[in-house]
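From: lab user (bench 3)
To: helpdesk
Subject: output format question, protein + guanosine-5'-diphosphate

Hello, I'm new to running complex predictions and I'm not sure whether the block I got back is the full result or only part of it. Here's what I submitted:
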Amino acid sequence: MAPLPSPAPTAAVIGMQWGDEGKGKIVDLLTEDFDVVVRFNGGANAGHSVVIGDRRYALHLVPCGILRPDRLNIVANGVVVDPEVLCAEIDGLTAQGVQVGANLRISDRAHVVMPYHKQTDAWLEHAQARSEDRAPIGTTGRGIGPCYADKAWRSTAIRMADLVDPAALRTRLAHIAGVKNATLAGLAAWVGEPFEPIDPDALAATYGAYADRLRPHVADTNALLHDALAAGRRVLFEGGNGTLLDVDHGSFPYVTSSSTSALGIYPGAGVPGGSVTRIVGIVKAYTTRVGGGPLPTEQDNAVGRHLRERGREYGTTTGRPRRCGWLDLVAVRHAVRLSGTTEIAVMLLDVLAGLESLAVCTAYRHGGRTFDTFPASAAVLEAVEPAYETVPGFVADISAARCWDDLPAAAQDYVALIERVVGVPVSLVSVGPDRAQTLAR
Ligand code: GDP
Ligand code: IMO
Ligand code: MG
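Helpdesk reply: Thanks, we reran it on our side. This is the complete output you should expect:
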């Protein structure tokens, strides 16, 4: 038997907080050294911004590798694909001069987000808002949860392979319309919204048109990925959302519906467990969160406003203002352990400039106990009191720094503090959105 090819270099970029850590910027940077970029989880709830010169790109479903020529970009089986959003995104990229053709492949196993998923998403949020149970999740409204629910439910799911097969699409939709019209009419009545029954023929026509556009991109991406790995091509996995939004390990129920840590790569792309050994954890120099749920270090005050305005903390996907607070290293350490993070990129360090002192949460206090593990209960996470280590801030703007030695001592010490508490080396520091504003440690 011929010797097996040696494993190709692989890496992953994973958010270590509640999303929007700056993953897009680092995927774009690292892609210089990779041939294939793979999204493996989430859907159009993600919004990854990349700034190249005077151009800003916002990617939702398409991997950031699309911005460099000759890279293969894969939307793998673990992603939920909204054809309407994807077609609009391809149009937007094309209008910006980005070539999208054979360089984009979408898994035939990926599940399809339909209009009734988005409607259900909104109605479930309305129902939650009116109940005395708990606060709404504050979803992106992109139909993510209901689509993953149908995937688990199976009988009402549509995969890309069905979408691009006109006969399969028609018969699937006829069945699904029956089930959804029966169930959603009740939900709509419960939340007091008008219900327009699903017309399977109209939906088949609209989605058949999207299918015609997307068909050339649909492929067995698992086979493509294995061929690429066997040929020694370098593969980068692009995480969507953030680890603390993970459906199993995040701040449940205030999470998204997919596996957002590096653990999600294996089922989400169909590669063997452990085949990615370089895990780049993306850590914003402070904490943000968009949507509901606990945020122990939130600063609903002048510090929070400083971070929001200086960091331009408004969502890429929904435009919502992001909630801002001090860096929570209890949460980051939880994320680092789950993913087996091997190195950290510290992002948006420039945003901290001008704050006299900086606080970093290194433990939680609750019920007379001090601990440094991330609690399962959202109620506990809501109630914990952060234990802070306070360090001097830096006043001057650092966005013009181009190497580690350009940083003031207080900024260097802050990065060293992250390393010390988390126990993982920081390899990159980012001081602005541009490619050039990235410093090797
Ligand atoms: P992602 O979802 O993790 O890719 O992050 P987003 O793109 O949603 O949000 C990060 C935002 O910060 C984007 O607008 C980036 O252009 C911007 N950004 C990335 N790195 C830096 C940085 O070091 N400094 C500043 N000021 N902005 C940055
Ligand atoms: P990127 O990839 C920030 C949040 C939503 C909401 C919760 C559930 O840009 O980092 P969903 O629509 O997924 O059911 O919403 O998860 N959320 C994100 N927050 N960045 C993201 O992606 C997010 N994806 C989901 O705000 O609180
Ligand atoms: Mg984002």
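A quick orientation on your result: The radius of gyration is 22 Å. Let us know if anything else is unclear.
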